[in-house]
Amino acid sequence: MAPDSRINAAKVVVENHKVIPYTLYMRYAALTKKKLALDRLRPLPPALVKNLDDWYRVELTFTSNAIEGNTLSRRETAVVIESGLTIGGKSLREHLEATNHAKALDLVRTLATKTPATVTEADILSLHQMILRGIDDPNAGRYRSVPVRIAGARVALPNPRKVPELMAEFMAWLSGPHDEHPVALAGEAHFLLVSIHPFTDGNGRAARLLMNLLLLMHGYPPAIIRKEDRLAYLGALETAQLGGAREPYDKLIAKAAERSLDIYLNAAMGKDEVAPRREDRLLKIGEVAKAAGVTVPTIRHWANEGLLTVAELTASGYQLYAPEMIARCQEIHNLKAQRLTLAEIRERLSA
User: Are residue 199 and residue 307 in the same domain, yes or no?
Assistant: First the structure.
C-alpha cells in the first residue's frame, strides 16, 4: 500500500479515500513485507512446490468442508482424495464433498493464470458446479430460486429474484480497478459473495475458493480458515453483515494469509515449521481439562453427551479439541449453575 496516508486521533489510516484501522493497516504492511521476502526466494524448487500444493490440497479441503459440518478428519480427507478409498461410517455426501472440493481447487489453480479483472460469472458457476456435483446436481452451478436462511444466524439474505442483479453488480465490481491490498481485495470478494448467498448450498465453500483464487492471482499462497477458527470466523462474518464492526473479519482473513506466508517462507528457507501456539493448534484432553479446571473424565463425559466437540482423533485414538472448547467448558459451568440438565444444556449450546 502506498504511504499516501495519515494517522488521526482514532488511530485510523486514511488511504486513497478509504478509512482503515491503524492496526489493520500495519498488518497489511507486514503481509506485503513477507510477500516480497517470498518473491526474492522464487522460483522455488519444483519438488517443494509440488509438496506444498499437495499439502494445501488436503488442508484446504479438510478445513473448508469441516467449517460446513463435514466430519471427515484431516487424515480421512487425505485418504479419500489421494487414494480414492472410502471411509467406513462416513456418508456418500461427505466423500463427494472431499473429492469435489479437491477438484475445484485444481480448477482454481488453472484459473489463477488469469487476472481478477477477467474472472467471469461462468468461472464462479463452474466452481460451484464442481462443489455440488453428484450431491445436488439440479442446483449445481445455478443461482437459487428459493429463499434461504443461515441456520442459527440473524442475517436476512437477499430475495432470490435479486440474485442475478446482485451477481451482475458483484462481477462489475470485481472486474473494476482496485487499489486496496490484495488480501483486503480477496477478503472483500469473499464477504460480498457470501452475503449475496447466490446458491442454495455451497456458498461458503465457493466464497473461500474465490478468495484463494484472488490471492493466487496476486502471488500469495492460499489462506486457510482453520476448523478451530470456525466460531470466530462465522461470528465475525455475521457481525459485519449486520452492520457491526468489520475489523474482526478483516483481521481474521489477514491472519490466515499471514500463516500461509509463514509456511511458504519456512519451507523455502529450509526451516522446520514453528511449533504452533496453543491458540493455533488442537489440544489434548488433559490440556483442555487443566485449562478449564475440570477432570479428564468430566471432559470425556461432556464430549460423549454432545456438549463438547472432538476436533480429531489421533492414530492412537487420543481425542484432540479446538481451543474454543475451553470457553465452551465455562459455558457449561454457567448453565449447570442454573440447574439445567445436560439435555437442556445441549439444547442451549446447539441454539
Answer: no
- Which residues are CB-neighbours of 271 under 8 A, at least 6 positions away? none
The domain of 340 spans 278-350
**Residues 85, 120: one domain?**
yes
pLDDT in tens, 306-350: 898 887 766 567 788 888 889 889 889 888 888 889 889 888 887
The residues, any chain, with a CB within 8 Å of residue 156's CB and separated by 6 or more, are none
CATH classification of the domain holding 285: 1.10.1660.10
- The closest alpha carbon to 199, from 138, 289, 156, belongs to 138
Average pLDDT, the chain: 89
**Coil vs helix vs strand at 321:** strand
Give the residue numbers annotated as catalytic, written as ranges: 197
Please indicate, yes or no, whether residues 31 and 90 belong to a single structural domain of this protein: yes
Task: Check pLDDT > 80 for residue 1.
Answer: no
Q: Is residue 66 part of a domain?
A: yes
Cβ contact 190:210 at 8 Å: yes
Q: How far is CA 303 from CA 73, 163, 294, 295, 296, in A?
A: 17, 41, 13, 13, 11
pLDDT per position as a tens digit, 25-84: 999 999 999 999 999 999 999 999 999 999 999 999 999 999 999 999 988 999 999 988
- Which DSSP letter does residue 10 get? T
Backbone angles phi, psi at 225, to 5 degrees: -85, 105
Give kind and range of the element (H or E) at residue 125: helix 121-132
Same domain, 186 and 45: yes
Rounded distance between C-alpha atoms, residue 292 and residue 108, angstroms: 41
Task: Label residues 85-109 b or e (16+ Cβ within 10 Å = b).
Answer: eebeebeeebbbbbbbbbbbbebbe
The dihedrals phi and psi of 133, each to the nearest 5 degrees, come to -60, 125
Number of residues assigned to the chain? 351
